[in-house]
């Protein structure tokens, strides 16, 4: 964590506190959560509580992290997790009276070991995946309606997570049994495609899902993710575009401020001299394009901070 803290401090020096305030809070949350987990383990030992699983928690500040609480879904916590969740809630309430915990199950990760296959596999997956697969401990085949009734997941969430389990050949549907032998070749490549697919396979409440008892994979440890719907991908793309636009706007404002500082000091400068000095002042933060600097000069002329000399159009004067 020392490298991350050093990077945040460098960003703070270069860009100011406001730019890095959320990063500082995120970094603090991680360190506090490490201490909280140690205290929780001490609490379990003192109260002679055995969870039966490795259980680690991150307690995050809602205002500092992109948590997307709109993705929360109704969810019935699996019985194997209930004891751990209840124990942590009791422990947390004893330390922080009045604070409310909101469980973000859609952001949690679990490690599940497969015991129904010829080889032992360790699979990293989301909590919803785990909840679905644990239901198959009592039966090799289940209807869609049975899975929904037991997990309480929305149709959208359950469909996406079932789809990725089928894509990885861990589960088979009514029409996919014939392809169970190809799991070892395809599962290695499904992680990337499963996370970006936008089409969900049609199903009905009576669709039957079965464990692929012949499942095999060249990897003994791998990760599966949920299918992202087209709408989710569009939202992510919009966020990327908004971030780029925000960065671009911040850079323009920085360049305009640099131009004003230079011209206030020099009063009169030729075009190429101004471009050169702006690039020199900005290079520690970013390398601006000549085109971007030109646009900033034009914007400042419109705001009447600068003007072209009438006798030499290649020269600018600062307007006091």
From TrEMBL:
The keyword DNA repair does not apply. GO terms for biological process: ubiquitin-dependent protein catabolic process. Pathway: Protein modification; protein ubiquitination. Residues 1-166 form the Cullin family profile domain. Keywords: Isopeptide bond, Ubl conjugation, Ubl conjugation pathway. InterPro entries: Cullin, Cullin-like_AB, Cullin_homology, Cullin_homology_sf, Cullin_N, Cullin_neddylation_domain, WH-like_DNA-bd_sf, WH_DNA-bd_sf. It comes from the Eukaryota. Pfam families: Cullin, Cullin_AB, Cullin_Nedd8. One of its GO terms (molecular function) is ubiquitin protein ligase binding. GO terms for cellular component: cullin-RING ubiquitin ligase complex. Residues 176-199 are annotated as: Disordered. Residues 189-199 have a biased composition (Low complexity). Belongs to the cullin family. This is Cullin family profile domain-containing protein. It comes from Medioppia subpectinata.
């Amino acid at each position: 964590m020392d490298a991350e803290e050093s990077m945040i401090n460098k960003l703070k020096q270069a860009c100011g506190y406001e730019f890095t305030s959320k990063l500082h809070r995120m970094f603090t949350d991680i360190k506090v959560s490490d201490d909280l987990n140690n205290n929780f383990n001490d609490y379990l030992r003192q109260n002679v509580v055995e969870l039966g699983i490795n259980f680690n928690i991150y307690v995050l500040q809602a205002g500092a992290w992109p948590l997307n609480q709109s993705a929360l879904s109704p969810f019935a916590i699996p019985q194997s997790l209930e004891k751990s969740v209840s124990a942590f809630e009791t422990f947390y309430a004893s330390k922080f009276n009045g604070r409310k915990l909101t469980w973000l199950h859609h952001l949690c990760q679990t490690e599940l070991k497969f015991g129904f296959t010829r080889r032992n596999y360790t699979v990293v997956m989301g909590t919803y995946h785990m909840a679905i697969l644990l239901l198959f401990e009592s039966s090799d085949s289940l209807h869609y309606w049975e899975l929904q009734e037991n997990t309480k997941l929305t149709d959208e969430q359950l469909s996406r997570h079932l789809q990725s389990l089928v894509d990885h050949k861990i589960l088979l549907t009514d029409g996919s049994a014939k392809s169970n032998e190809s799991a070892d070749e395809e599962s290695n490549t499904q992680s990337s495609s499963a996370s970006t697919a936008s089409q969900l396979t049609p199903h009905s409440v009576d669709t039957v899902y079965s464990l692929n008892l012949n499942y095999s994979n060249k990897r003994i440890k791998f990760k599966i993710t949920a299918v992202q719907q087209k709408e989710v991908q569009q939202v992510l793309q919009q966020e990327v575009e908004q971030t780029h636009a925000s960065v671009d706007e911040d850079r323009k404002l920085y360049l305009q401020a640099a131009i004003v500082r230079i011209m206030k000091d020099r009063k009169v400068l030729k075009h190429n001299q101004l471009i050169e000095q702006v690039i020199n002042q900005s290079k520690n933060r970013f390398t601006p394009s000549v085109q971007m600097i030109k646009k900033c000069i034009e914007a400042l002329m419109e705001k009447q901070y600068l003007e072209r000399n009438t006798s030499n159009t290649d020269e600018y004067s600062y307007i006091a």
